[in-house]
């Protein structure tokens, strides 16, 4: 990930000369309809002074407008399509009514250019969520069609700041424009997916978070990249994790790094040292370099910089998620994950016919679940409402996959043959090459729900299936 093409002076910037404009929160109460116009525009995602990049964004912005509501509120949003192609919006991680899930071809028809679609849904869970295009998402998300959706707890959580860090990587040409020639590249589809070489946080190269010593910060980290798993380092700061994919967890120390796969969210609590260290920054670590993406900028004029008594971090209030798994009588299914470069897949079913790998490659159909590329007529699982479902995923290829289930949160109950018992409920789980991971959830949301890899090129190349809940 080489930023130097665009940015030659990074290393010299010791003190960030700008102040963070907070992403504008748009109130969407019962009465108001939020307009989300999907359209082409330009955005300053490379440094000021560099060219603006042509993007597709909601209301012309990237990230799109931040939607912020209270738990149990309604979100009402009108998608107005001013793109040259059809689109839809998926509300990632929201346990939503099926008809509002935004999956074209499964829960609604794609919204044609010039048309609009009204989404209206109640948000049952407080937490950090996001929304993104769910029609040719490998292209539309890469071009910028995503935003953050925050659902606030009924009672405000005691923090001094509530900050968001949306991380994305872009593949840009030398002209700082989205590299279009490689959209849909078979190499990306069969390898790790589309990886970019230009990093943005909250739609720009770097973020600065104002703080004073002793303050408590809630930081909501969201990975909106098509395919990149990010590793973040917080220097000498000691973050605690308080929520994963929108669901509260028992607060726990993060350890040295945060690994966050595409579509995942992690909420952290960071107590700012009273003595402002130089290392109050957030870095993205890659195999080749360390890139500072955000900095906590101390207000040294404030007398609040004195040490504060640090109060314990309490657990966020639980969401109304059914967690009483019935592991004795589950609906159980296996999910063999095959394909990709060096994966050794010889053939698979495509639209009901067995095809050789040579034929599959011609169609970009390079991934399979249970020997089948892409969607099937019958669901992977049919469950009764309220039933516990176990899916035993076996990653038999050379690539990691960020497996996402719509409409539900699940728990990992087994990894590599060992039972797992923790309190984490996710909507997206990273499954490493060679790993077996079993997930369990209560099928309490009726409808047709996707299960797919959130490396969006893998999804498009065949790693997508669905479940039906009566
Ligand atoms: Cu965030 Cu089916 O996706
Ligand atoms: Cu994948």
What is the secondary structure topology, with strand pairs?
Blueprint lengths: L24 E3 L6 E10 L9 E6 L7 E5 L3 E8 L7 E4 L23 E7 L4 E7 L3 H4 L5 E7 L8 E10 L15 H5 L7 E4 L5 E5 L4 E8 L6 E4 L6 E5 L2 E7 L3 E4 L4 E7 L9 E5 L4 E9 L32 E9 L7 E4 L2 E4 H6 L4 E3 L2 E2 L7 E3 L3 E9 L5 E5 L5 E5 L2 E2 L8 E4 L4 E8 L3 E7 L2 H5 L3 E6 L1
Parallel strand pairs: 1-4, 2-5, 4-9, 10-13, 12-20, 21-27, 22-25, 26-34
Antiparallel strand pairs: 2-3, 5-7, 6-8, 8-9, 10-11, 13-18, 14-17, 14-19, 15-16, 15-18, 19-20, 21-24, 22-23, 27-32, 28-31, 28-33, 29-30, 29-32, 33-34
This protein binds CU-O-CU linkage and copper (II) ion (CU).
Copper (II) ion binds next to loops.
What does this 3D model show about the protein?
By secondary structure, the protein is mainly beta. The protein folds into two domains: 1-320, Sandwich (Immunoglobulin-like); 331-469, Sandwich (Immunoglobulin-like), CATH 2.60.40.420. It contains four helices and 34 strands. A six-stranded mixed sheet has the order 11-10-13-18-15-16, with no helix packed on it. A six-stranded mixed sheet has the order 24-21-27-32-29-30, with no helix packed on it. Strands 1-4-9-8-6 form a five-stranded mixed sheet, with no helix packed on it. Strand 19 (281-285) and strand 20 (290-298) form a beta hairpin. The longest helix is centred in the last third of the chain and has 6 residues, at 357-362. It is globular. The model is unreliable at 4-25 (pLDDT under 50). The structure holds CU-O-CU linkage (C2O) and copper (II) ion (CU).
């Amino acid at each position: 990930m080489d930023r130097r093409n665009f940015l030659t002076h990074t290393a010299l910037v010791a003190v960030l000369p700008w102040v963070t404009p907070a992403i504008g929160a748009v109130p969407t109460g019962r009465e108001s309809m939020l307009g989300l116009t999907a359209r082409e525009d330009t955005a300053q995602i490379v440094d000021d002074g560099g060219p603006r990049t042509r993007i597709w964004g909601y209301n012309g912005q990237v990230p799109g407008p931040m939607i912020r509501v209270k738990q149990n509120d309604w979100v009402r949003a009108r998608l107005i399509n001013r793109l040259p192609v059809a689109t839809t919006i998926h509300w990632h991680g929201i346990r939503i009514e099926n008809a509002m899930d935004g999956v074209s071809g499964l829960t609604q028809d794609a919204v044609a250019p010039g048309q609009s679609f009204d989404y209206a849904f109640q948000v049952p869970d407080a937490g950090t969520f996001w929304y993104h295009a769910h029609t040719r998402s490998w292209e539309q998300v890469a071009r910028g069609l995503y935003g953050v959706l925050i659902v606030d707890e009924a009672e405000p959580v005691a923090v001094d700041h509530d900050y968001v860090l949306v991380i994305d990587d872009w593949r840009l040409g030398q002209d700082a424009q989205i590299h279009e020639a490689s959209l849909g590249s078979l190499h990306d589809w069969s390898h790790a997916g589309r990886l970019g070489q230009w990093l943005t946080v909250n739609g720009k190269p770097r973020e600065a978070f104002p703080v004073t010593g002793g303050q408590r910060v809630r930081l909501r980290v969201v990975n909106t990249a098509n395919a990149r798993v990010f590793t973040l380092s917080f220097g000498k700061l000691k973050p605690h994790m308080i929520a994963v994919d929108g669901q509260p967890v028992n607060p726990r120390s993060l350890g040295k790094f945060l690994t966050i796969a595409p579509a995942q969210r992690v909420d952290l609590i960071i107590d700012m040292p009273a003595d402002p260290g130089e290392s109050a920054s957030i870095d993205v670590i890659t195999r080749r370099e360390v890139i500072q993406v955000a900095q906590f900028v101390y207000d040294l004029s404030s007398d609040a910089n004195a040490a504060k008594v640090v109060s314990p971090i309490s657990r966020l209030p639980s969401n109304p998620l059914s967690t009483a798994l019935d592991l004795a009588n589950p609906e159980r299914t296996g999910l063999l994950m095959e394909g990709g470069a060096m994966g050794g897949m010889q053939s698979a079913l495509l639209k009901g016919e067995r095809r050789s790998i040579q034929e599959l490659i011609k169609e970009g159909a390079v991934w399979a679940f249970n020997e089948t590329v892409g969607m099937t007529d019958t669901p992977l699982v049919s469950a009764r409402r309220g039933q516990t479902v176990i899916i035993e995923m076996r990653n038999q290829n050379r690539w990691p996959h960020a497996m996402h289930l719509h409409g539900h949160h699940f728990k990992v109950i087994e990894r590599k043959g060992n039972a797992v018992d923790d309190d984490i409920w996710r909507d997206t789980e990273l499954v490493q090459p060679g790993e077996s991971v079993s997930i369990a959830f209560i099928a309490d949301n009726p409808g047709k729900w996707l299960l797919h890899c959130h490396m969006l090129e893998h999804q498009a190349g065949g790693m997508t299936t669905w479940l039906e809940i009566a």
